[in-house]
Amino acid sequence: MNDAQAIDYAKAALAAWDVPACTPRLIKNRENAVFEVTGPDGTRAALRLHRPGYQTDAAIRSELVWSLGLAQATMAVPCPLQTRDGDVITQVPDARRVASLVTWSEGEPLGEGGVPFTWAPDRQAQLYHALGAELALLHRISDTLSLPDWFERPRLDIDGLLGEVPLWGRFWENAALTQGEMALLQEARSRLQGELQALSGDADFGLIHADALRENVFVQGDSVSLIDFDDGVYGFRLYDPGVAMSQNWDLPNAAELAAALCEGYGLDAKSAALVPVFTVIRALASCGWCMPRYAPNDPALITYSNRAVKIAERYLDGKPIYGA
């Protein structure tokens, strides 16, 4: 779907909501196409055209019900806006896409993957401390919500992360890997399975954001908030801070950022020591995620696979995961 098509589909989707006439402003056209639009009350809102086949209609409705529950518990998250028919999604004519409309999130992104932070190191640490606290709040509130019987989100349990058919793909079969690198990722996968099996009986498991990357963390003053719950799942709670560190693992101040994140969350030393394990798992998962999205010779595919190999080597060699 090119940008011009996306804008046409966005205009068609808005007919389902009681909104003023406006020209949707395309923010990104990637997994989902996201637009800034005018909402029913005349304020800014975000319209999403969801990627076909990624989530079922029930799973998208579930994400929005979850977000509504979090917002009603005073958490700053995008809140769904109902259509004229009282639904939270609509089918977009001719687009094979589902659309949803949510309240606008104020602030600026924490950063962008692969791009150096604009914040000073002390400010980075302060913001990751705030992010840890926000993730802990998300997990606590999610456990208190009364969700409908039809609530549906994927599971990132041991099989979903490291099984024969992981949720994000068989990462060890990435076309950019050599045979030796494939074997290396298989070795890491086997060892990680053992770690999670040893952990699973004591692990905190429940609804998680699962994509707390810099782009999905918005900064306002000293506070942060989360956007884009599209990848939200039932999973290991430690996966969320592990994901948050997956863009930072090789920075010179990575250990300091991880310490701030874990302190903000309130993790004890034993749990904090496991966060790097989940950063490794996320790097492997991303190596699978990119496979259907890029051609075998695409630089992005090579970047994801190289990162997975480097972090797996550190893990298997028993070296610290975080740091340059």
What does this structure look like?
The protein has 324 residues and is α+β, with helices and mostly antiparallel strands. The chain folds into two domains: 3-104, Phosphorylase Kinase, domain 1 (2-Layer Sandwich), CATH 3.30.200; 109-317, Aminoglycoside phosphotransferase (APH), C-terminal lobe (Aminoglycoside 3'-phosphotransferase, Chain: A, domain 2). Helices cover 41% and strands 15% of the residues. It contains ten helices and eleven strands. The protein has helices at 3-14, 57-72, 121-144, 158-162, 179-199, 239-244, 254-265, 269-272, 275-289, 299-317; strands at residues 25-29, 33-38, 44-49, 89-92, 97-103, 108-109, 155-156, 205-208, 217-220, 223-226, 233-236. The strands form three sheets. The chain has a five-stranded antiparallel sheet with strand order 1-2-3-5-4, with helices on both faces. A hairpin with a 4-residue loop joins β4 (89-92) and β5. The two termini are 39 Å apart.
